[in-house]
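User: Please fill in residues for this 348-position structure.
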């Protein structure tokens, strides 16, 4: 039964990759779907899981990430030659992968044991108008707390430049990295006065960018034929290393309870992106309870915002940017956005 669910999952992943413009991964995922029984042993931790559970745990992305990590490492010349940028031959890549798994399946099992950490920096282009909305509504400096931050690249959101074409621009045009997205809908509050008082972040298993294997693992979750995503990652990683960005090792619910109490003189902003689906149910419930508790203590002089870019619960798509702001706590849909940050349909 697991084989059938795995086949369906990789076929769905092939369609998703094709829709996101990754021809190489679409072809590779299709090959995997056809031969998945040959590597089913790698998916033993999900024995008994159905298609929905496999997709929720991003099992297909874990496996593709393990393949890309091997290609990036240079430890297997055949798979490196078949993967972009050296090549783009899905058949050759899959043949090389089967041989590599036969030689060292433990390497793949270890990589797949942890949930994906893409740290897609372009998501900051989707989060930015949310931060501007909080700043405009409160008139206070922002104390930003990111959950599931991975390597913390989105902590630098205020240091990037943004270009949304005719819809607006924001930030220092001389910044080392400019992010953009296709914008539709009314303009965001681009003229809101923004000051970042502090930033902090947590992750269950932070990625240390200064450690080459960890940085490579993070890069491995980018799709190899999407060279612009990889270029953005390299630029953002260089900025984060230069800035000394750090991410604390902590459970998101415990950390939020300890760190997110509203403080006078700043707007405390708890934010996250494509994170919620990886939380155990008990952690998600504890996190919501912690945010609600802090929200109840918020005042106009010490507000609390919960900004999140996440799929509609129980679904893979669409991705929504939502904001709850206390006092009051009304939950608002700000935008519908692309999972990799390529577009923003502003609703606010």
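Assistant: Residues filled in for all 348 positions:
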């Amino acid at each position: 039964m697991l084989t059938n669910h795995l086949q369906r999952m990789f076929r769905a992943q092939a369609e998703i990759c094709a829709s996101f413009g990754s021809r190489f991964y679409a072809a590779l995922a299709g090959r995997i779907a056809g031969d998945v029984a040959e590597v089913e042993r790698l998916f033993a931790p999900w024995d008994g899981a159905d298609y929905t559970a496999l997709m929720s745990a991003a099992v297909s992305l874990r496996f593709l990430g393990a393949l890309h990590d091997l290609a990036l490492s240079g430890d297997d010349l055949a798979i490196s030659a078949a993967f972009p940028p050296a090549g783009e031959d899905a058949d050759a890549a899959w043949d090389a992968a089967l041989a590599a798994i036969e030689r060292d399946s433990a390497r793949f099992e270890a990589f797949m044991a942890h949930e994906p950490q893409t740290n897609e920096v372009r998501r900051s282009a989707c989060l930015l108008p949310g931060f501007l909305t909080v700043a405009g509504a409160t008139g206070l400096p922002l104390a930003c707390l990111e959950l599931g931050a991975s390597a913390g690249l989105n902590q630098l959101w205020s240091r990037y430049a943004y270009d949304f074409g005719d819809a607006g621009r924001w930030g220092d045009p001389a910044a080392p990295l400019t992010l953009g997205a296709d914008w539709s809908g009314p303009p965001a509050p681009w003229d809101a006065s923004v000051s970042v008082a502090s930033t902090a972040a947590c992750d269950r298993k932070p990625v240390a960018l200064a450690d080459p294997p960890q940085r490579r693992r993070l890069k491995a979750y980018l799709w190899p034929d999407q060279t612009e995503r990889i270029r953005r990652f390299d630029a953002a990683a260089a900025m984060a290393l230069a800035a000394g960005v750090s991410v604390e090792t902590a459970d998101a619910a415990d950390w939020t309870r300890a760190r997110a109490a509203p403080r006078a003189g700043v707007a405390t902003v708890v934010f996250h992106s494509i994170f919620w689906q990886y939380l155990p149910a008990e952690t998600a419930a504890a996190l919501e309870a912690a945010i609600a508790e802090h929200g109840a203590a918020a005042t106009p002089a010490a507000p609390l915002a919960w900004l999140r870019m996440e799929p509609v619960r129980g679904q893979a798509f669409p991705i929504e940017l939502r904001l709850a702001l206390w006092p009051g706590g009304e939950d608002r849909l700000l935008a519908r956005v692309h999972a990799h940050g390529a577009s923003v349909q502003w609703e606010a």
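For context: The chain has twelve helices and twelve strands.
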